[in-house]
Structures are given as C-alpha cells and as structure tokens.
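Reopening this ticket.

The earlier resolution said the output was attached, but the attachment link was broken on my side. Pasting everything inline this time so it's all in one place.
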Amino acid sequence: MESVSMRKTGKIILFLILGGWLLVSAPARGVDIEGARLWAAPDNTRLVFDISGPVDHTLFSLRNPDRIVIDLANARLRQRLTALDLRKGLIRRIRTGVRSGRNLRVVLDLKTAVRPKSFVLKPSGNYGYRLVIDLHDRRVVKRRRYRPRQRNNKGNRPLVIAIDAGHGGEDPGATGHGGIREKHVVLSIARRLARLINATPGMKAVLIRDGDYYIALRDRITLARQARADMFISIHADAFHDPRARGASVYVLSQRGASSETARWLAEKENASDHIGGVSLSDKSQLLTTVLLDLSMTGTIEASLELGKDVLGQLRRVGRVHKRRVNQAGFAVLKSPDIPSILVETAFISNPYEARKLRSPRHQQRLAASIMRGIRLYFARNPVPGTLRARLDRRHRISRGETLSSIARRYQVSARRIRQVNRLRGNRLRVGQVLKIPPSDS
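Inline output:
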C-alpha cells in the first residue's frame, strides 16, 4: 500500500512540474496592432492605433533629429502603416521594428519638436481598444491666454463670432440613419454660418474646428478667448434611442455649471494672471476675484439666454423645435466666464426624416441662415461698444415726448435719413416704436 501511495504522489509531483514548465515556457498572448488612423489639426496631430486588447507601452522623445519612440510589449503589427497620409501634421515618417523577438518599436520622425502624450482607450461604440498618441507643437504657446482688447475710439473693429463644430477626428459624435455622422454635418453647417458672418459688414467668423480633427472641450473655449470672441456658437446634432424624437434645441450654461466653473477658476493658480471681461485678476484679492467671477458668470448666462431665445425663435421658422424654451445644462464648451455662449442641437440625427434633411446642403444653409438671423437680432438689441456693428445696427425705442428731430440730434444723423431707413412717410412716431438708426453723418 505504501509503494502505491508513493507512486501516486510521484505522479502528482511530476504533473505539477511539467504543468509549471509549460506555463513558464508558453508565450503570453500577444496584442495585435490591427490598423492606424491619423488626424492633423493646425497645431497638433493625433495618431490612433487599433489594438486587439490592452497593451503595456512606453514613450520617450529624442532630439537631433526630433523623433518619438513608442515601445509596445508583446505586440505584433498586422497592417502596414505606409497608407497613412503624412502630408499634413507633425509626423514626417513612421518606422517600425521588432525588439527582443516579440516587442514592437514604432519610431515617429517629426517635422518639429513636440510635447507627446499617450493613453489607452477601452472599447466604446464601434471602436475596440485603442492606443492614442497626441503630439502638440512645442512652438505653440503652452497655454493660450486672453488678451484684453485695446481701446478703439474709432469704433470700427468687427464683432468676432467663434463657431464650434462639435466632435471631430476620432470622436465622430452620433451616427444617424444611412451612416451619416454628426462630425461631418455640423462642420458643414459651421462653415456655411461662417460664410454668412464674413459676408456681413462688421462681423468676422472664427472656426474653432475647420477640418476632421478632435479638439478637447476646454481647448475650444481657450481658442475662442484667444480670438477675443464676442460670441460662441457650438453646433451639434442630437441623438436619442427612440428614433421618433425630433426637433432643434438650444442650450446655455446652467447655474450649477457656472458655480463649478467659478470654483475651478479659483482653484487653478494659472488663472490668477488671466483677465475676465478685460479686467485683470492678478492684483485682486480672493474675495474680490470671487465676486468678479460670479458677476461675470451671471451676466454671461443672462446674455446667453437672450441670445438662445433669438436663435431658437429663428430655428422654429425652418423646422420643428424639440423644446419651446432654451434649456440649461453644464456642457463644458459653454463655460467661458465672459463670452455669451450657446449650444445648438440642429436636429435629431437619430431620426430618419431629420437625418435625410441634415444631409441636404439646402437644409444646412437654411439652418445656418436661421442661426445668423438670431445672431443679428441679438446684436441689434445689444450693440457692443467700439464695434462697427454697433454703429450699423443701432436701434432706438420711442419714449413719450420724443420727436424725430430730437432723436436725429441725439444720434447726429438727419431726420431725413432716419425716415428713409425706416420707410416713414412723415414725422409721426408711436410710443414703443423701434427705429433703426443709420450711421452718423459726421
């Protein structure tokens, strides 16, 4: 019996030894690099590797010449990277090689020095695991700051409208009926709106995104402030699990979102030397800075609500609206403390009928034109001092006792020109009547 027991014990030990040797000697399951995509923005480039699973990687920079080296542990390249279009962006050439028999090395030869960043994304939507490499041009200032406007006594500067086409690049936004993608539709509408703005005397459009690339939400605000925008319009297309949902919506920042943004500004020391509404915060106490931010945020939300009502009213003329009132939410792109900002959901891309309309260049133009009318209505009632539009879009509401000649003297224009612009047949005025005031005769 003892010999039988020992034989069984010996077999168990031998099995464990062999099993352990097999576990040690068997190669760990590798990660496949199944493809790559590249998006080039004006000052950064994003390279995305589609991978079969999580991957351990290291990234480091080398100089003379400038290049980035990415080492991926136990990884194999399943598709050549030669198909990537490198004419635009910061990458001059991509080289690959194998190290230690199973580790993949990718070398990015660069056109200029960059600040690199890498991270792995988990599966989401139609995408699996991805390794993202972000390269930012070192020549670009590390953080774009608001530059207060110089006083302009001539009053001829243009109104600057920042137009933000949502999503882009690796982030396609919602996908609608027939495969239509939100990022493409909203960029087309944004470009159409920009052309309308640039064709209007005294206005200038700044496209935050003018191509198929991704810009971080915070960077969109920063770019608008760097451009010293007077207004920020973010354009999107809504989506819902029920395809029957339809209609346009307009959003502005909520009070909760404003409170969190104020706290964030106060917590980040780099904001201390910034400006809010042209007022420097660098020499203000914590209490005064808090008061200034709260006042600015409150005033900006009120202006945004007024702008949102004007735009929503015009969108109602070209199609159905999802909600009759302007909505408030904590969207990150609406959190500029001193720029009236709205987010326009042009339609539900998940609705087959509205998705077909969004494909139509004619409907895209109608949407852009409706937003433009809302913008002009807002600035006509709220002229920005020092701008050409403030002179071109002047309005005056008649009060009791006022006459056409007194109004003409006040604005330094002739009564005849006021009659011509407003198509008045005589000098009779009504209390509450709104007159358009032409540019000054002087």
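Reporter confirms the inline version is readable. The longest strand covers residues 31-40. The radius of gyration is 30 Å.
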